[in-house]
Amino acid sequence: MISIRPGFKGIGTAFRLLAKPAGFAMLLVISLVFAYVIKSMQIKGAAIIFVLMIGPPIAFGIIAKPRFGITVLLIAAYLIMWILRMDLINFPLGTIMDALLALLIAGLFIQLKYRPDWSFLSSPISIMIIIWIIYNFILVFNPVAESKMAWLYTIRSMAIVMLTYFVFSYHIRDIKFIRLIIKLWLGLSLFAAAFGFKQQFIGFFAYEEAYLYSDPLIMDLLFINGVWRKFSIFSDPTAFSYNMILSSLLCIGLMFSPISNFKKFILACMTMFFLTNMLFSGTRSAYVLLPASMIMLTILVFNKKILLATSAAGLIMAVLIFMPTSNPALYRFQSAFKPSDDASFNVRARNQKMIQPYILTHPIGGGLGSTGVWGAKFSPGSFLASFPPDSGYVRVAVEMGWVGLFLFCLLLFMILKTGISNYFKILDPELKSYCLAMVLMVYALTIGNYPQEAITQYPLNVYFFLVAALINATYQLDKEKRKLIAGNNNTIGGSIRH
């Protein structure tokens, strides 16, 4: 006989119903259906059943427990391209990310009903993001756009994903949650780096080799000087390299927090591991981001130790750039700092020069999704469909015009300005180090978005707005801490007087 405690009456009732003949019959039918699906569809069938079983509880948890939902979103954004490449499920997993965002937004409005605090919308970053989203929706009426479907597919990555910023801004309200997010980020980065290390020294899995040989164009892009460029769990080597750079900058920023020397040593080792993996990617545009970010670090944390360290690092970089070598990886690294000798850079420069008259004569651009993959799919044969933007800024200028480029640059400037301002205002050493790391990452992506499309691919299209939200969250938490200390001091002072 099952003893049911009072708090579990519902569960006890369910057990009693299943113990009856009708309950056994229902379970038998369900098990037979599951067995048939798995036999017919193999691993895909098992995956579908698994999703159907865990989907509803997870959906409820995302809405009811926003921190759980944010954690799921961050993990899913990091792993989605890896799961897609495995091709285990014939299902558009991008819609799952859309569903996660929709659930988080629904949870946000529910929370606002019971805790109506709209202050997170008043920051300069929030205002710029709202303006950007509105502008993206206005572009559906662009008269020169070739396809409305291209707009529909592109606005997800250009504007809708920015709603994550408001979710992060509202729910990240204590330092413990920030610590959890950073530990999660570093853990996922270590997994990605270990996966890239495996690709470099052990080789590719069968499904990865199938991807590499599936299209001659992929081989042309990824097989350079007899060596495969590594991409780890990400969509391509560029995404891999940029994520490794950001993870390195995160570690560097955390070294300025009040932690033990042993933890700083671990962070330094992780930084070197991430940077080594960045080299495996063979992405030249990523190589310049670290030295550029170190210049920003030197300006923000101006002291003798940092100046000496960055000077020594600059000297080592100069030696690596100009030393003669026959190593393919090192030669590719050196070519990143000699763009005039790079044929691909010169081709990009000519393309950008060619498209400038179009940008100047189309203030709101040729329409979202008019270039690249969506342009080739929805408006084949058009002028822009065959144009390779090869740059986040160029894509915005072509598709959204110089008006859109101005708004986008203003948004990035506002995030960077707010981050620098908050860094100098924050007094708490731990929160200050978190803000420093976020500023370094925003600065790196602002530069990295010129040679590549840095902010529109998973996971960076989600993590970039997490970074923006943390810039505000660290400052707000620091202000609250100062008010609490001031209040306690006033209370103690009043007690002494009395």
* Spatial order of the strands forming the largest sheet: 1-2
How many helix segments?
Answer: 21
Q: Span from first to last CA?
A: 65 Å
Radius of gyration: 26 Å
| Fraction in helix | over 70%
Task: Give the ordered list of helices and strands.
Answer: HHHHHHHHHHEEHHHHHHHHHHH
Low-confidence stretches: 1-11
Topology:
Elements: H1 9-18, H2 21-64, H3 66-86, H4 94-114, H5 124-138, H6 148-158, H7 163-171, H8 175-201, H9 206-212, H10 216-222, E1 223-224, E2 227-228, H11 237-254, H12 261-281, H13 284-287, H14 289-300, H15 304-322, H16 328-335, H17 343-361, H18 372-378, H19 392-425, H20 429-448, H21 460-497
Antiparallel strand pairs: 1-2
Helix pairs in contact: 2-3, 2-4, 3-4, 3-8, 4-7, 5-19, 6-18, 7-21, 8-11, 8-12, 11-12, 11-20, 14-15, 14-20, 17-19, 19-20, 19-21, 20-21
